Amino acid sequence: MSAAEMSGVFAPVVTPFRDDLTPDHDRLIAFSRWLLTQNCGLAVFGTNSEANSLSVDERIDLLERLTDAGIDAGRMMPGTGCCAIPDTVRLSSKAAELGCGGVLMLPPFYYKGISDDGLYAAFAEVIERVGDASLNIYLYHIPPIAQVPIPLAVIERLLKDYPDTVRGVKDSSGDWSNSLAMLEAFPGFRVFVGSEAFLLANMRNGGVGCISAIANVHPAGIDALYRGWQEDGADAQQEELNRVRQTMQRYDMIPALKAVVSRASGDAGWAQVRPPLMALDEAARAALFDDLDGIGFSLGYDPAA
Amino acid sequence: MSAAEMSGVFAPVVTPFRDDLTPDHDRLIAFSRWLLTQNCGLAVFGTNSEANSLSVDERIDLLERLTDAGIDAGRMMPGTGCCAIPDTVRLSSKAAELGCGGVLMLPPFYYKGISDDGLYAAFAEVIERVGDASLNIYLYHIPPIAQVPIPLAVIERLLKDYPDTVRGVKDSSGDWSNSLAMLEAFPGFRVFVGSEAFLLANMRNGGVGCISAIANVHPAGIDALYRGWQEDGADAQQEELNRVRQTMQRYDMIPALKAVVSRASGDAGWAQVRPPLMALDEAARAALFDDLDGIGFSLGYDPAA
Asked: What span, in angstroms and rounded, lies between the C-alpha atoms of A256 and A280?
């Protein structure tokens, strides 16, 4: 599988912090290794990675430490989209240089209501400045958080002008009709849905997988549906995945993911988040664990294994 | 006037770019000098400065060049709020070290729907890490763009814990009732409105001035109302200011400001913006100039003077 043909299940890998809020590369490397054993690709520096709470220098340092540790860069799709073009260029260049299979690129997200021309110009400027044929971009459409959508008209223009660089999308709109519209409009465009709730629908319509928060804690289950979507029982598998997701969604997602990793690993430090996020309080943590126990779900991550 | 007592009219100074999109410090220094001659303070790196399209390194470089050029740091209130705490700390520390009268601090703006506790923790963490008694923070409340408001409950807590650091606010909510609520709730808290449309109301209710996009092109007119708000004719002055503002607001504000500076200075390069923004096209530029001519408004900026 060439880098341009990434597919399957990816986790926006949660980023562990030490007590002083510095990123903890050792914990990140161990957790990333485990995710790979579950057939789960590494979309480090996604929304659920608290990437936008990390400086560019911190992200570059983590990326180098991951690859230095022997983590397969071909299975990595780091988030590289920042508000400022020079930052996006630095991160994307570093990812390409390290051999990352792809990058997941947010639009510049501070200014709202920007024009299609301006959005196109921002992505085009980044591509031209990186100037690296090994750069494979997956556009990151997440209007609920970025508040800056990536319209189909902009994707069409980018695909026309940069067909060997713009490879696909992560659609985190939560709007399946938007994913379907992209699948229908752009043959060969690699559509990852941003939630495993749409994984089966995506696979049945020509999509290539999903990049989902929940893949941090349920990678094997999601991967089983990805691999078995054409088999009997796929609909039941999808429903089972939905049950886990709905339970997690009752809580603040990022602190909830970290609480689950913290419990599984017996490592209280894993629960640490950076402000403006806050860790779950004791009551929410207990309720989350009760809810997960109630549906018979547990994460089997052992960092010592 | 001590740094803690900033007041008057400030411009979020528009940032000039060269053809290759690098920030042009010479043009910025010249324009900043001129604004100071108009009694206009320098809120460099505001929303209208395209600050979020600049890397932290670019902002630090510009700040150093401004002060190296002899621009009075005491009249500067640079924007320093980023999504990531380490970035906000670096910029705020540099501003304090250079003697800036204040800093204008956005909340971390990527994650939406964050809790009051999380927002408080983000600001508190920055203050503790900067650890500089000369840091004077003006909170930047701009929900229409940041999409992360700074609620009164958070301000109250910050004022209680950091009364010698948290000095005031720029309220760009566009909601006068919010400005008034802050004026009433926090005696001594320095409220700048984010639009000169509310300048007279703000002064009549204990506010200290405004920080407005339009101050880039109409500084003396706005300053005249700031100084003369208790005189006869203040209401008429406010209406005159509103007329200029309403004309500018028919166009994309940042490119429109730059078009006006470009025309006044006879320097076509001033019209350059960074993507995702786009310069006004020829038709919009001509229409803007016609509209401004129609109300008898012109900017008298001559960089050679």
From this structure: 7
Structural domain that includes position A65: 3-233
Q: Where are the alpha helices (DSSP H) in chain B?
A: 25-37, 56-68, 85-97, 116-130, 143-146, 152-161, 176-185, 199-204, 219-228, 234-248, 253-265, 282-294
pTM: 0.97
Question: How many structural domains compose chain B?
Answer: 1
- Residue from the list A107, A147, A278 with its beta carbon closest to the beta carbon of B276: A107
Report how far residue B3's alpha carbon sits from residue B133's, in angstroms, rounded to the nearest whole number. Answer: 12
CATH of the domain at A7: 3.20.20.70
**Contact A108/B55, CB-based, under 8 Å?**
no
Which pLDDT does position A1 carry in this prediction?
A: 45
Has residue B281 been placed in a domain?
no
- For B98-137, the pLDDT digits (tens) are 999 999 999 999 999 999 999 999 999 999 999 999 999 9
The answer to whether residue B65 is domain-embedded is yes
Cα-based distances in Å from B158 to A277, B66, B116, B133, B153: 17, 30, 11, 15, 9
Whole-number CA gyration radius for chain A: 18
pLDDT digits (tens, 9 = 90+) for B203-237: 999 999 999 999 999 999 999 999 999 999 999 99
Residue B186 inside a domain? The answer is yes
B115/chain A closest Cα distance in angstroms = 8
Give the model confidence (pLDDT) of A227-286 as tens digits: 999 999 999 999 999 999 999 999 999 999 999 999 999 999 999 999 999 999 999 999
Interchain pair B277, A55: CB under 8 A: no
Rounded to 5°, angle at Cα A174 from B173 and A16: 80
Query: What's the alpha-carbon Rg for chain B, to the nearest Å?
Result: 18
Domain presence at residue A29 = yes
Query: Do the Cβ atoms of A108 and B21 come within 8 Å?
Result: no
State the nearest Cα–Cα gap between A280 and chain B, in angstroms. Answer: 11
pLDDT score at A305:
77
Chain B residues bordering chain A (beta-carbon distance below 8 Å): 21, 47, 52-58, 83-87, 90, 107-112, 114-115, 117-119, 121-122, 125, 144-148, 274-278
Q: How far apart are CA A170 and CA A101, in angstroms?
A: 15
Which of the 8 DSSP states describes residue B74? G
Provide the 8-state DSSP code for A297: -
Residue with tokens 């509103």, as numbered in its chain: B242
Query: Å from A118 to nearest chain B CA?
Result: 4
